Amino acid sequence: MANAVLKHCVVGLRLFRWQNHTRVGELAAFMNTGIAGKKEISYEDLKALLAKSQNLLLVDVRSQDEVDKGRIPGSTHIPVATVKDAFSLEPEEFKAKYGVTKPPLETSELVFHCHMGRRGAAATAEASSLGYVNACNYSGGYQEWSMKEKK
């Protein structure tokens, strides 16, 4: 068991090193320890938010190639490697670049997602470190969404 955990940690460290992510908050989110205030929502929660919220910002952090193969309707594409820079932009710059309003720091309607949850968790941790303390991750990602939506 200990060897399996150690192997998982090494794989995780290599992944984040490869993506140039070395911050403790991002690593904590990846390791699912709950240290960095990591919050997750389910498919059902996301469906409810999409149905009722006018202000939800759903951020797809996958690569452009992945997005080209399919996306969750209403999502905004901001690759994981650019999340910190994107959410550091002034509101006018953010709107000009992404076509949507930059959410206020206190918003509870900022959701990140990727394909299976890891990059979404890293993006959520990054946003949290910038002050978006209520940001959350749709951990099922596009993989779960497309399966449940039969796409």
Automatic annotation (TrEMBL):
A Pfam family reported for this protein in Swiss-Prot or TrEMBL: Rhodanese
Residues annotated as domain Rhodanese: 52-150
Family matches, as InterPro entries: Rhodanese-like_dom
The name this protein goes by in its record: Rhodanese domain-containing protein
